[in-house]
Amino acid sequence: MVAGIILGMGLPTTAAYIVMASLLVPALMKLGIPTIAAHMFAFYYAIISCITPPVALAVYAGAGLAGSNMWKTGFTAVRIGAPGFIIPFMFAYSPSLLFIGSPTMVLESVITAVVGVVMLAGGMIGWLFRETNLMERVMLLSGAILLIKPGLYTDLIGIGLLAVIILSQRLRSSPEPDPSHP
Q1: DSSP string, 123-151
Q2: pTM (two decimals)
């Protein structure tokens, strides 16, 4: 991941992918990752290198157009794009997300990946069904990481953490509505 981001710094997406395809993909394939998963890993990080500080070409251009602070925009882009940093690892650990394997494996992988990405987004933003407290955020981020690695036990623990958070948020009393705001 780090090598992919560094190799892609300052390059447009196509050029970054070409560099990564020639340098990163063979190394990933030697680690036992299927060819298509290795290429998708490289492709995702070729795209993500455009929003990763310190170079962040897309952020620099967007911040210039919006007239906003480049560093704040860059860190916001990384926070919003956080699932994009995790999804390539899902491809590497579970090629069934790329429709490699039985339909049951593919369906199971897609469901756990979607739940994991929702948990990651909730943990990064601090909101699931309502604002999350620090413990819920930690549990959301932990559950998301557990759902990345395929396996029955990690999936069950990740789903269990989500169930605890949902229960916690449902049991928490909702704040009284402000009568001055309709």
Answers
A1: HHHTBSSSB--HHHHHHHHHHHHHHHS-S
A2: 0.74
Q: Is residue 38 part of a domain?
A: no
Q: Flag whether 1 is in a domain.
A: no
Average pLDDT along the chain, 182 residues, taken 10 residues at a time? 81 88 92 92 87 82 90 85 83 85 89 89 88 93 87 91 92 64 56
Domain containing 105: what range? 82-173
> Which positions ≥6 away from 1 have C-beta within 8 Å?
45, 85, 88, 89
Residues 6+ apart with CB under 8 A from 104: none
- Crossing angle (nearest 10°) for helices 70-80 and 103-125: 140
What does each C-alpha distance from 116 to 64, 96, 140, 178 come to in angstroms?
33, 15, 9, 34
Tokens (6 digits) for 116: 């994991």
Domain membership of residue 139 (yes or no) is: yes
